Amino acid sequence: MPQQVRGVIARSKGAMVELVDIVIPDPGPGEVVVAVAACGVCHTDLTYRDGGINDEFPFLLGHEAAGTVESVGEGVESVKPGDFVVLNWRAVCGRCRACKRGLPQYCFDTFNASQKMTLTDGTELTPALGIGAFADKTLVHSGQCTKVDPAADPAVAGLLGCGVMAGLGAAVNTGAVGRGDSVAVIGCGGVGDAAVAGARLAGASTIIAVDRDEKKLAWAAELGATHTVNASDTDPVAAIAGLTGGFGADVVIDAVGRPETWKQAFYARDLAGTVVLVGVPTPDLRLDMPLLDFFSRGGALKSSWYGDCLPERDFPALVDLHLQGRLPLEKFVTERIGLDDVEKAFHTMHSGEVLRSVVIL
Ligand SMILES: NC(=O)c1ccc[n+]([C@@H]2O[C@H](COP(=O)([O-])OP(=O)(O)OC[C@H]3O[C@@H](n4cnc5c(N)ncnc54)[C@H](O)[C@@H]3O)[C@@H](O)[C@H]2O)c1
Ligand SMILES: [Zn+2]
Ligand SMILES: [Zn+2]
């Protein structure tokens, strides 16, 4: 029987989000209904609301979630009712050209549920990133459910579903940070601070956090930054050089995604170092710089989608590291809120007061 539950939707471009009744179909083949326990508020939810992703309104928002499998459809063997799972937006297909080349982190055909969740009048909803978890329950593809240790706090584990994994993976997977490396992270919101935590986990010995906001720098220091640089009064490139023997850092991560921060990342790295762009630029932004500088510095200029993660590989391991006290993911949960507080959380996010607000269901 289809179920009626509460969900947070964005009905039209820029309009305030609404808490409404939505209809969740029974899971079809390959599908799973998950009872959501917690879901973080990410910038991308706001971008959906503002029409910055596409025009397929109404959206069912929310995509950084953990919960319990309630029911599974035909053929689902990877999870069963009662399993504690983190939801992901990279259920790799195993068949596309990226998967076949052994690079499933670039999978071009990731799985989502085939049936639609709807409003009570039958209007089809577009779930944010194929998840839609600002809701009591959601319908996803079984591949979007990654089992992790149920001892983890859902508010904490769910954050691996997007921003924290993106930042952590930008350091560990894309940047391949190793023991003894020097790393600089520009922009220390949830994503940048996760890159800081990832760099520490990977054994970086110098971790330089750059932000314009002292509160963010204080959080970065708690998560493992060995040095902080306030970009509102200090030139980050000179400061990073000064902290790395005049050479620059081995890996510099831009977690803002603007031409000026990317250029800082480019010039703040050592010769043959790596730049990782994990912040998402808006379509209007342009880069203009001497091509010779690129040639003469060598190294690698990379971008990182979802931290190049593979949920099945990365989520359980990171949850285990967290439960062992080796990865303080709980520090990313700044506040716990209700399902009717999402609009307010967008404002809190904008004013930079939180790493993450997490909706508890
Ligand atoms: N690549 C991915 O898969 C992925 C996934 C999730 C989010 N993101 C992106 O990562 C970026 C960061 O997300 P977030 O949640 O951490 O955002 P956030 O707004 O919480 O953090 C951004 C931080 O950058 C700082 N900042 C802004 N301009 C700066 C400058 N010129 N110099 C130094 N610091 C500056 C801000 O003070 C803030 O602390 C966003 O663009 C987001 O869309 C990417
Ligand atoms: Zn694929
Ligand atoms: Zn997100």
UniProtKB/TrEMBL annotation:
It holds the Pfam family ADH_N. The keyword Cell wall biogenesis/degradation does not apply. Its cofactor is Zn(2+). Keywords: Metal-binding, Oxidoreductase, Zinc. The lineage of its organism: Bacteria, Bacillati, Actinomycetota, Actinomycetes, Pseudonocardiales. Its EC number is 1.1.1.306. SUPFAM superfamilies: GroES-like, NAD(P)-binding Rossmann-fold domains. Residues 14-359 form the Enoyl reductase (ER) domain. This is S-(Hydroxymethyl)mycothiol dehydrogenase. One of its GO terms (molecular function) is zinc ion binding. Belongs to the zinc-containing alcohol dehydrogenase family. InterPro entries: ADH-like_C, ADH-like_N, ADH_Zn_CS, ER, GroES-like_sf, MycoS_dep_FDH, NAD(P)-bd_dom_sf.
